[in-house]
Automatic annotation (TrEMBL):
HAMAP family: KptA (MF_00299). Keywords: NAD, Transferase. GO terms for molecular function: NAD+ poly-ADP-ribosyltransferase activity; tRNA 2'-phosphotransferase activity. It is an enzyme of class 2 (transferase). Its EC number is 2.7.1.-. Belongs to the KptA/TPT1 family. This is Probable RNA 2'-phosphotransferase. Removes the 2'-phosphate from RNA via an intermediate in which the phosphate is ADP-ribosylated by NAD followed by a presumed transesterification to release the RNA and generate ADP-ribose 1''-2''-cyclic phosphate (APPR>P). May function as an ADP-ribosylase. It comes from Variovorax beijingensis. Transmembrane segments: none annotated. The lineage of its organism: Bacteria, Pseudomonadati, Pseudomonadota, Betaproteobacteria, Burkholderiales. The keyword NAD applies.
């Protein structure tokens, strides 16, 4: 992916997940922003942004971070939000028996004590495969992958959701469901 696409993807993640107000943009509760308003706000704040660039970021994002509405008029990040104005109505779904969470070794002691917490985001993020989880963990230091007994959690009534891009979401993983690490 080119430098411009990576930069633009980071910018879109920032404004569509975390700080829309930093460029004077509003998101609705489902996280949608008008593409025209996004472009106008970005340009006003000194960014180079147009529809073809947005479309390229959306289609080349290997994690499928963003979605355009069917008519192309709106865009949102499909998960990963911290913005208070957003409360996406994710569909509840039964998870596979085991899901994975990648983190850094330096967080392990705290995670073992408190379980997995969402931090500033709305959800704890879990993946179906160890490789993805390892890459997520590497962002913060020496990676370690925790296996989560998601099936057992779900059996006990804890809700799971799956974002459009396949990432699994839940609000808290209590320590007793952190079955192992690899
Ligand atoms: C850790 C990326 C101490 C947690 C990824 C993580 C993901 C604790 C960090 C998505 C803890 C939060 C989200 C506790 C959790 N004590 N540390 N009790 N509970 N943590 O970035 O899951 O590239 O907010 O392990 O692919 O790393 O942005 O969450 O290390 O899907 O599209 O606190 O972001 O996607 O970090 O990553 P984050 P995450 P994108």
């Amino acid at each position: 992916m080119s430098k411009v696409l990576i930069e633009t993807s980071k910018f879109l993640s920032y404004v569509l997940r975390h700080e829309p107000q930093s460029i004077g943009l509003s998101l609705d509760t489902e996280g949608w922003a008008s593409v025209d308003a996004l472009i106008a706000a970005a340009v006003q704040h000194g960014r180079t942004l147009d529809r073809p660039l947005i479309e390229q970021v959306v289609t080349t994002s290997e994690k499928k971070r963003f979605a355009l509405s069917a008519d192309g008029s709106s865009i949102r990040a499909v998960q990963g939000h911290s913005a208070d104005s957003v409360a996406i109505s994710f569909e509840e779904k039964a998870p596979p028996a085991v899901l994975y969470h990648g983190t850094a070794t330096r967080f392990l002691e705290s995670i073992r004590a408190q379980g997995l917490l969402p931090g500033s985001r709305h959800h704890v993020h879990l993946s179906e495969d160890v490789q993805t989880a390892t890459n997520v963990g590497r962002r913060y230091g020496k990676p370690v992958v925790l296996a989560i007994a998601a099936g057992a959690m779900h059996d006990q009534g804890i809700k799971f959701f799956q974002a459009q891009n396949g990432v699994w979401l839940t609000t808290h993983v209590p320590p007793c469901f952190l079955s192992s690490d690899s």
